[in-house]
Amino acid sequence: MKARWLQRLVPRSRPVLQGALAVCLVGSALPASALPGFDEVRQAFQPSDTLILSHEGEVLQRLRTDATVRRGQWVPLADVSPALRQALVLSEDKRFFEHSGVDWHAASAAAWGNLWNQRTRGASTITMQLAGLLDGDWRQGPGGRTVVQKLGQTVAAKVLDRRWRKDQILEAYLNLVPFRSELVGIDALSRTLFGKAAHGLDDREAAVAAALVRAPNARPALVAQRACGVLRGMQQRPGVNGARVDCDALDLFTTAALQRRAFDASEGVAPHFARYLLRQRFKDGAAVPERVTSTLRAPLQRFAMQSLQQHLRELRGRNVEDGAVLVLDNATGQVLAWVGSSGQLSQASEVDAVLALRQPGSTLKPFLYGQAIAERRLTAASLVEDSPAQITTASGLYIPQNYDRQFKGWVSVRTALAASLNVPAVRTLVMVTPDAFHRQLGALGLPLRENGDYFGYSLALGSAEVPLLHLTNAFRSLANGGRFSPVVVLPTQARPAFTPALDARAAFIVGDILSDGNARARTFGTDSVLATRFWSAVKTGTSKDMRDNWAVGWSERYTVGVWVGNASGAAMHDVSGTSGAAPVWATVMGFLHAREPSRPPRLQQGLVQWPVRFGPAGGDGDSATASLPLEAARTEWFVPGTQQSVFAINNVADGALSVRAGGQKRSKPAEPQADLGPARILLPVHGTVIALDPDIPPQSQRLRLQAADRAGLRLAWRMDGKPLGRGAVLEWLPWPGRHTLELVDAQGQVLDTVRFEVRGAGVAPGAVPGTVSKPR
Q1: Is residue 722 in a domain?
Q2: Last-in-domain residue among 592, 623, 640
Q3: Is 658 domain-assigned?
Q4: CA 543/CA 552 separation, integer angstroms
């Protein structure tokens, strides 16, 4: 049977030559018979890009994943420009639709030309070239093809022509042929050199593409010369009013096209998420599929990106250009939106702010209070003192400040957390201890690179660095009753594996506090952007020098985290917790719940609801206000065994403002004895080393200078020999260095002297104090 089709394949010639050819063709027929079918070739085609699809099947991102070659998507022949089809056939195989895989007329002409050393067009047809692309045995090497390769390619072309349709051959060829450099296939060529899809190529572009098939890496001038010949041939086709071809203009066009690289390595609305997904799910060189369906929601992703960009444009002039948005599904942990940067607004758009380590500011406070409530150290109604505090540490005094540099006095935990007061949070961390809080954050999935002692008490105010991804997922744990599970980026039917991270009752109480608009009113007002028309709980945060601004919160179904700032770490100008990230958070939450309700969480078993009232303010204040209750009576939630009906504070000694590292209040310093003189310095103590808090702007930190005056003298202070101020109590803006503090009377006589040291970056002497302290 083979003999018969071999005889049909080889033209009549002398018996000896025919016999020799038959022997060679029999040997080459075996690999040719194993050529794949069209469907196999189509399915095996692997683009150099991976398409990331949304949950709905919409393409969100195209991302290059193969750096060795540049292939686009497979293009059906019907989507290829008719001009390109004609140019390719005209340039490579004029009788493509007439021969049966091998153009014997062209082969004879080529053989005759070679015999007489004449330059002729090659006899290789499109079908023969496709055979070489499909089987490496027939591929041309540096020295050209051998006789056996040429014969094998001929056999393979005949087999292809018999098994495949002409349109299939042309379609496969257009998608597999190398054009120039790393470009393979018509989709990569048209998008790279011409910036358009293959169906949009005109005659001029088609002529250049066809010319590149013949000599992929030729000089632009030679490519233009060949393209000019192809274009002339196309203008002479029947039914076309042939116009004069301007080869000089085509030369300029070709040179410009060959220098263009319009086919970006990444394109779409979720570049950072696409890279994260591929890194996490296809590690260690695993093959990446052509299409990957993700958990993202296309409409939500686009809306989140547009909302972030719009808000950052509104903040123009405040030195803020970057931001990030993350939306998680509470029940499954699926990532529904991931906006890693502000795109064109950013000078560092490749930086993924969802994964970048940034200081979270006050967004860590819910976990701190949750731990204190779970450990029964505090309740939501417990009273904590918001007043100047100097916390003794191994390196000196830690002096936290509030955002507005004002103190609220005694407040409940509900007010302290909702209003984001800093001093009560630091006092709470003194009770919990930094190491214990560090372990709590680790259980919630927050990766801290250093231990609790490294951060010290500033950990209560967010001095550690965490990514938005992990911070938002930690808030999702609060939404799930204190249960933690990792985020999910690929659709799955498996249920998330939750692990307990925080007492469910404490998580419920924290959520109830963060959803209480009245409790946050002392800082944010009653008409805050944080107030939504549906149930939601939210916490804002700002890091030192206003470098990072956050808003993270949850509703019944979703957890949304937003960060704004600068990837460079530059400080923003006049951007607060409610003007930075919060508006974006509220806008995204409103989009999620435009047609979907959000109900309060279900009551956790074991909680007790108890009516509470608060005692009067007391103290040495105005008699008109001293008798008023600290806060209005209300019904509060308690962990069983911690409830009580009345919360009140007795009068507190004036000197009971310092806190030791162990968490116990220090009693008022003993009054000086008579032999110590009429007055003495109580604070600071001689030899004190004061460490400035790196998380609070230096101009916003104050050191309390306090003196005991038994004789009622007119006291004055001198610092390093220069007058500083008058009175028994004075707030001083410290600056680094070793200082001598003197207490003098009205005549200038020195009554007491102490020496101490200030360490850290401070404000130069004489600088005007700022008006902004530790942000909320």
Answers
A1: yes
A2: 592
A3: no
A4: 14
| Residue numbers of the domain that contains 356 | 310-592
How far, in Å, CA of 98 to CA of 101, rounded? 9
Instruction: Dump the DSSP string for 187-224.
Output: HHHHHHHSSS-GGG--HHHHHHHHHHHH-TT--HHHHH
Q: % helix / strand / coil in the chain, to the nearest 5?
A: 35, 20, 45
Query: Given this model, what pLDDT does residue 269 score?
Result: 96
Claim to verify: residue 202 and residue 314 sit in the same structural domain: no
Helix 147-163 and helix 2-9, axial crossing angle in degrees, nearest 10: 100
**CA distances from residue 372 to 211, 408, 416, 428 in whole angstroms, order as listed:** 75, 21, 13, 7
Q: Are residues 319 and 247 in the same domain?
A: no
Taking the C-alpha atoms of residue 500 and residue 498, their distance in angstroms, rounded to an integer, is 7
Closest to 696 measured CA to CA, from 397, 368, 321, 357: 397
- Report the distance separating Cα 537 and Cα 520, nearest Å: 11
Looking at the structure of the chain, the number of domains it has is 3
pLDDT at 653: 40
The three-class DSSP label of residue 632 is coil
List beta partners, residue 183: 70, 180
Tokens of 104: 């014997």
- Burial zone of 548 (CB within 10 Å; 0-12 exposed, 13-18 middle, 19+ buried): buried
Query: Which residue has tokens 């209560």?
Result: 460
DSSP 3-state of 591: helix
Residue 179 lies in a domain: yes
Among candidates 122, 86, 130, 88, which has minimal Cα distance to 106?
A: 122
Q: What is the pTM of this model?
A: 0.76
Structural contact between residues 262 and 192, judged by C-beta atoms closer than 8 angstroms: yes
Closest by CA position to 367, among listed 443, 285, 422, 278 = 443
Q: How far is CA 645 from CA 372, 402, 482, 609, in A?
A: 20, 29, 27, 11
- Residues of the chain with confidence (pLDDT) below 50: 1-27, 30, 112, 115-120, 143, 619-623, 651-676, 695, 766-776
The DSSP H or E segment spanning 112 is helix 104-115
What is the reported pLDDT for 670? 39
Task: Judge if 412 and 505 occupy the same domain.
Answer: yes
63 occurs within a structural domain: no
710: domain CATH number is 2.60.40.10
Q: Is 373 helix (H, G, I), strand (E, B) or coil?
A: helix
CB 412 within 8 Å of CB 614: yes
Nearest-angstrom CA–CA distance, 391 and 657? 9
Parallel, antiparallel or unpaired: strands 59-64 and 266-268: antiparallel
